[in-house]
Amino acid sequence: MSGHSKWSTIKRQKGAADAKRGQLFTKLAREIAVAARAGLPDPESNFRLRLAVDKARQANMPKDNIERALARAAGDGSGDNFDEVYYEGYGPGGTALMILTMTDNRNRTVGEVRAALTRAGGTLGESGSVGWMFDRVGLIEFEVEGADPDDAALVAIDAGARDVQVEDNLIEVVTEVEDLHSVQQALEASGFNIISAQLAMQPKTLMSPEPDMAIKSIRLVERLEDLDDVQEVFTNLNVSDEVLAEAIN
Questions:
Q1: Per the count of CB atoms within 10 A, which of 136, 176, 195, 229 is most buried?
Q2: How far is CA 202 from CA 131, 153, 205, 221, 248, in A?
Q3: pTM for the complete prediction?
Q4: pLDDT by residue (tens digit) across 178-208?
Q5: Which of 40-49, 58-67, 96-105 has the lowest mean pLDDT?
Q6: Would you say residue 247 lies in a domain?
Q7: Which domain does 27 fall in, by range?
Q8: Are 96 and 194 in the same domain?
């Protein structure tokens, strides 16, 4: 997943600077609700729910907000009923996009996603049109500083990880979906400070369009992620540091 760490670092830096916190917390609450509905409403018994709660804590979501989201998810069904839906499409220059949404109104969501794609020169694809270009994996990231990448790789691989890469001050560990929890536990037990652990869509190959198209693709991803119903966007876009810096400034 070369390039993913770079993308994650920039998104994290931008998020710390200018994210709309109310919108972010709303999205995190939805993620908790959907994860709870997919299994038991107890983070200790539902790994996906535990991931959602950990993600909320990493984003500094107030404890009361997290507890309210868990209470609604475990309640009598009076809370919002959101569905998890992936939309597939193409960005400028032909970059592939997997757009993860959580919505209570699919007509509204698909309309907003299609409009954002069209305005940027992209297109909304049929189901399966780009999904074959991605693998669903577990993804763990932590900072290189204070950690020995070789030690981290040994711990992760011994615990079942399938790949470990170091890029842009991050160590990135890729696992099978079912091994994410055990690898995360092994790394934490060895003293590594995990920044994030999540389920992700890993592109099988990366695409490096011309700089102007790459910048348009980056800005499209940002616009999509600003939509209320969009949780995350995965892409096979690969860009240089220079192009990425130009796009976010």
A1: 229
A2: 10, 19, 9, 16, 23
A3: 0.85
A4: 999 899 999 989 888 888 888 999 999 999 9
A5: 40-49
A6: no
A7: 4-73
A8: no
Comparing CA positions, the residue from 142, 146, 189, 191 lying closest to residue 164 is 142
Q: How many other C-beta atoms lie within 10 A of the C-beta of residue 204?
A: 11
Query: Given this model, what pLDDT does residue 194 score?
Result: 85
* 131-149 pLDDT tens trace: 999 999 999 988 777 777 8
DSSP string, the chain: -TTHHHHHHHHHHHHHHH--HHHHHHHHHHHHHHHHHTS-S-TTT-HHHHHHHHHHHHTT--HHHHHHHHHHHTSSS-S---EEEEEEEE-GGG-EEEEEEEES-HHHHHHHHHHHHHHTT-EEPPTTTTGGGEEEEEEEEEESTTS-HHHHHHHHHHTT-SEEEEETTEEEEEE-GGGHHHHHHHHHHTT--EEEEEEEEEESS-B---HHHHHHHHHHHHHHHHSTTEEEEEE-B---HHHHHHHH-
Same domain, 58 and 116: no
37 pLDDT band (50/70/90 cuts)?
Answer: confident
137 and 197 together in one domain: yes
Q: Distance between CA 212 and CA 80 in Å, rounded?
A: 41
Q: Write out pLDDT tens, residues 198-236.
A: 899 999 999 998 989 989 998 899 899 999 999 999 999
Does residue 248 lie in a domain region? no
Give the C-alpha separation, 181 to 197, whole Å: 9
CATH code of the domain containing 91: 3.30.70.980
